[in-house]
Specification:
By secondary structure, this protein is α+β, with helices and mostly antiparallel strands. It has 20 helices and 22 strands. 49% of the residues lie in helices and 16% in strands. The longest helix has 23 residues.
Length: 567
């Protein structure tokens, strides 16, 4: 009998077959259990300690999971689901993890007991997903975007499960107003652009009360004027934006200038001053009131600006400069000699520099139809402000989704129970593995209403049984769980609605992720490092240092000895 051929190294770890699939399922369920208690309006909070010793208190699924360091590859894949859901929709990060873990849990009997091939399970899951998404489209409602009332209801439901929900309508109004300000329609193509990440910035200032938070009709940033004699209050300012320095250019590399006479030094200084004077004159010619640049401004340039009555701000962030350009109608200029009248922004109504706390903030507000805005957040502590910021970002993303796709479904677990009931009825028309997979997904979808009941202290078995009986009648698709009282309720009456895009994306992400993990039948890890010995990188570094010092000693002894040593 021939010797076995060793392809992998002996210390390589490998899991294959049913063992790898069951381990993946266990890892996915463990990640889901981490965030299960953070779903719903009566959810619990998690305190996370980062490696630097800081603390973070939140119930946002993505914020929790991104701070957790996991080892298992399947657990890392599950955490990526929350990040992808947050980038795509901004909401539903906890739901997608819980639903994904439950999808894996219901697939375990197929692999362990029934010994079904993973491809057949995946095929049934994908068919059920298509039917579920089509059914959600059929029961969805369309929101009237002309008024803020219905949009605010959807955003309020998003915030109701978060820390910002205790402040009532304030956070909802902030989110809806900010999104409405940044909506921009292309005049040629008619496409609607809503870039809240770039053009709706949240400025957090500790102190004051949360009720002092507001959305500005313009932008603000943490900068002060460069000279104390410059004006701090200007009405109807003419704003010029630059991304070039207003100081003499320094050489990119080392530069030596040989000066023979004292007059040569004076001439060199005069040339620098003349260059700065020419640049300032080319700016002053257009009579701007405010000049903002991303680079530095020399003392001489500040002197000319003070004489001309111009307020200057230097070293501005690129993102802030872009938002000012969008709000004031200005164009960012790259060279001062290329400035045109059309580059001056005239849409702002007020330029003001205020001191809030210990720092100075510049406000460019009262803009006409600003397509960029700043949200001023006040609060008692940094933890409160950080959590409010996370909640507001989620709320703005939900509002953005509504403006892109104005379709909603009822929340409180009602849409999951409606889809579950539909899949159960559809499974009666099927046979074999497809019937079992439809039933499995129908059971898995019940995890959302069940978790809502458990987190608010209700009787889960009793309420779920009553909810199933309600959904046998298709007229009761809006019935779900009141997450505050822990009872059955009609979501129409309590105005609990969620965007269709968020629910559809949650279901797609959860089921597709479960399908990917089920299909993995082999996990091969790299070479394990011996815990007792140094790593390969450390060994190479030590070898390099020893060689370096040894060669230095040989060079000191002389070239002849070095040559003899090499030979």
């Amino acid at each position: 009998m021939s010797q076995p051929v060793l392809v992998l190294q002996q210390n390589t770890k490998r899991e294959h077959g049913r063992k790898s699939q069951l381990n993946n399922i266990s890892a996915g369920k463990s990640v889901a259990d981490l965030v299960r208690s953070t779903l719903g309006p009566k959810s619990m909070l998690k305190m996370i300690l980062d490696p630097m010793g800081g603390t973070q208190i939140t119930n946002d699924g993505n914020a929790i999971l991104r701070e957790i360091d996991v080892v298992h590859p399947a657990a890392k894949h599950m955490i990526e689901l929350a990040r992808a859901q947050d980038e795509e929709c901004g909401d539903g990060t906890t739901s997608v993890i819980i639903l994904g873990g439950e999808m894996l849990a219901v697939s375990q009997p197929f692999l362990e007991v029934l010994q079904v091939h993973p491809i057949k399970i995946v095929s049934g899951y994908m068919k059920a997903l298509d039917d579920a998404v089509n059914y959600m489209n059929s029961i969805s409602l369309t929101v009237d975007l002309t008024t803020d009332t219905e949009v605010a209801k959807v955003v309020d439901c998003c915030l109701g499960t978060k820390f910002a929900g205790r402040y009532g309508d304030l956070a909802t109004k902030l989110a809806v107003n900010a999104v409405r300000k940044v909506i921009r329609t292309d005049a040629i193509s008619g496409n609607v652009e809503i870039d809240v990440k770039r053009y709706a910035k949240i400025e957090k200032i500790p102190g004051g009360h949360i009720d002092e938070s507001r959305v500005l009709d313009g932008v603000m940033f943490n900068k002060d004027i460069t000279h104390q004699k410059m004006r701090r209050l200007i009405k109807n300012p003419r704003v010029l934006l630059l991304d070039c320095p207003l100081e003499y250019k320094k050489a990119e590399s080392m530069l030596n200038v040989e000066i023979v006479d004292d007059k040569d030094w004076e001439k060199l200084m005069e040339m620098e001053e003349k260059w700065i004077q020419d640049v300032c004159e080319s700016i002053i010619r257009f009579k701007p009131d405010v000049v903002c640049t991303e680079k530095g401004i020399s003392d001489l340039a500040q002197h000319y600006f003070v004489k001309a009555g111009i307020s200057a701000i230097r070293r501005l962030r690129k993102t802030d400069n872009n938002r000012i350009a969008r709000a004031t109608g200005a164009t960012i200029v790259h060279r001062p000699e290329e400035i045109q009248e059309s580059d001056i922004g005239t849409n702002a109504g007020l330029f003001q520099v205020q001191k809030i706390g210990d720092e100075y903030f510049t406000f460019i507000v009262e803009c006409k139809e600003p397509k960029a805005c700043s949200i001023l957040l006040r609060g008692a502590s940094k933890d409160t402000l950080n959590e409010m910021e996370r909640n507001l970002v989620d709320a703005m993303n939900v509002a953005r989704n509504i403006f892109h796709n104005p379709k909603v479904v009822y929340g409180g677990g009602s849409v999951e129970m409606a889809v579950s009931q539909m899949l159960l009825e559809k499974s009666k028309t099927l046979a074999g593995v497809s019937q079992k997979t439809y039933e499995a997904i129908a059971r898995a979808l019940e995890v959302i209403p069940r978790t809502l009941v458990q987190n608010c202290g209700g009787a889960a078995i009793k309420l779920l049984t009553e909810l199933r009986s309600k959904h046998t009648d298709k007229a009761n698709v809006s019935w779900g769980i009141d997450g505050i009282e822990g009872v059955l309720a009609d979501m129409k009456d309590i105005d609990v609605m969620e965007p269709l895009s968020v629910k559809a994306q949650t279901m797609k992400t959860a089921i597709e992720a479960a399908c990917v993990l089920i299909r993995i039948d082999d996990i091969v890890s790299g070479v394990a490092v011996d815990a007792d010995g140094p790593s390969a990188g450390v060994c190479l570094l030590l070898l390099y240092l020893v060689s370096f010092f040894h060669l230095n000693k040989l060079f000191i002894k002389g070239e002849s000895e070095l040559w003899q040593h090499i030979v």
